[in-house]
């Protein structure tokens, strides 16, 4: 199953953590709070009022999905 290997497939593996019960939990970028400015920069834009407003709308409309599509 070479296509499942993130190095071979070119897909980054998600960060993993272990909770108190010993269960592995997949951690994603959307688990932390994001400001519109952060999202604008993560999308490769300068945090100008135009891009900050666009990012604010994305966060409002899509919630964590706005982050997941940019920073998986």
Protein topology:
Layout: H1 6-9, E1 15-18, E2 24-27, H2 36-42, H3 49-62, H4 64-68
Antiparallel strand pairs: 1-2
Helix pairs in contact: 2-3
Structure keywords:
72 residues, alpha+beta, two-stranded antiparallel ribbon, 2 strands, elongated
Structural notes for this entry:
By secondary structure, the protein is of the alpha+beta class. It contains four helices and two strands; from the N terminus they run αββααα. It has helices spanning 6-9, 36-42, 49-62, 64-68, and strands at residues 15-18, 24-27. Strands 1-2 form a two-stranded antiparallel ribbon. α2 (36-42) crosses α3. It is elongated, with a radius of gyration of 15 Å. The two termini are 22 Å apart.
Quick structural summary:
With 72 residues, this protein is α+β, with helices and mostly antiparallel strands.
Shape: elongated
Sheet having the most strands = 2 strands, antiparallel
Range of strand content = 5-15%
- Determine the number of helices (DSSP H or I, runs of at least 4 residues): 4
Number of strands: 2
Poorly predicted parts: none
Average residue pLDDT: 77
Biggest sheet strand order reads 1-2
The secondary structure category is: alpha+beta
Give the helix level as a range of percent: 40-55%
Question: Helix and strand succession?
Answer: HEEHHH
C-alpha Rg, in Å? 15 Å
How far apart, in Å, are the first and last alpha carbons?
Answer: 22 Å
């Amino acid at each position: 199953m070479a296509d499942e290997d993130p190095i071979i497939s070119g897909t980054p593996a998600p960060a993993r953590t272990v909770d108190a019960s010993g269960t592995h939990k997949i951690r994603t970028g959307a688990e932390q709070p994001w400001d519109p400015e952060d999202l604008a920069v993560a999308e490769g834009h300068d945090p100008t009022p135009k891009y900050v407003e666009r990012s604010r709308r994305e966060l409002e409309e899509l919630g964590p999905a706005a982050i997941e599509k940019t920073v998986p």
